Inverse folding.
């Protein structure tokens, strides 16, 4: 995956930034649609999403700096502002976006868990699209599998492909399930558990600093996400509240249509990954 996708005059459009922006647009469109279906103001949701995007971006950058290269950035603090060079943590991004959402919803007396449910499908879709532009490959392959990626004469696991394909599967599940939740927050917690599980599996194919044995910092973060989500699930399920859903049947649509759309998106990501070089 080449670092620069194309140029517009003096401006270089970086591949990772392009796909992250594309994913963000998709997430905004889906989330505002879901919020309207739940009877929430799309204008207020747009304001919320701006804070979430900012919090997510800052959290992703800070998470990477703290975990992977604190010494370097302490010595070169201005380099922390070089988002164009990469260095983002997905766990940090989710945590940052979540904190921003908590602050905004409390400040404006909005239903946090209802909004979180509305955002869940869009979040995982954004992650799938964004991961398409990632150029951090996995560990060397034990066998020359045809889907491997050659780098420096070594055939590597395309960990990004494994992750975005699993993300698309989770998107399909959440999109079909979103009108059948038992309590506010259930769909979002499914997203958290699903994402953390996916990342935990894919992490075995990535080349990252380990904590012990084959387990990395991302494994620890994923486990923390799962435990926190299970604790929240237990608390929310114990005191269920009515879940307002309007237009459920029309919003869900035929299963084949959702499956076909998801398949087209996955194939598009695959083609983009392997042929945009």
């Amino acid at each position: 995956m080449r670092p620069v996708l194309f140029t517009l005059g003096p401006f270089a459009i970086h591949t990772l930034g392009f796909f992250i922006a594309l994913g963000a647009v998709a997430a905004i469109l889906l989330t505002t649609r879901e919020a309207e279906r739940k009877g929430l103001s799309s204008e207020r949701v747009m304001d919320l999403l701006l804070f979430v995007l900012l919090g997510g971006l800052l959290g992703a950058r800070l998470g990477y700096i703290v975990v992977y290269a604190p010494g370097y950035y302490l010595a070169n603090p201005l380099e922390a502002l070089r988002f164009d060079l990469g260095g983002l943590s997905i766990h940090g991004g989710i945590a940052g976006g979540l904190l921003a959402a908590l602050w905004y919803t409390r400040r404006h007396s909005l239903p946090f868990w209802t909004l979180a449910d509305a955002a869940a499908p869009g979040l995982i879709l954004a992650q799938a699209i964004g991961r398409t532009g990632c150029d951090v490959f996995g560990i060397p392959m034990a066998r020359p599998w045809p889907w491997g990626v050659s780098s420096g004469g070594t055939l590597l696991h395309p960990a990004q492909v494994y992750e975005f394909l699993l993300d698309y599967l989770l998107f399909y599940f959440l999109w079909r399930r979103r009108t059948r939740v038992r309590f506010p927050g259930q769909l979002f917690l499914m997203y958290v558990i699903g994402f953390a599980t996916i990342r935990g599996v894919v992490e075995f194919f990535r080349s990252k600093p380990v904590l012990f044995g084959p387990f990395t910092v991302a494994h620890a973060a994923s486990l923390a996400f799962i435990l926190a989500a299970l604790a929240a699930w237990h608390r929310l399920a114990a005191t269920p509240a009515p879940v307002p859903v309007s237009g459920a049947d029309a919003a869900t649509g035929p299963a084949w249509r959702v499956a076909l759309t998801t398949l087209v998106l996955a194939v598009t990501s695959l083609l983009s990954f392997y042929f945009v070089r």
Observations:
- Residues 138-275 form one domain.
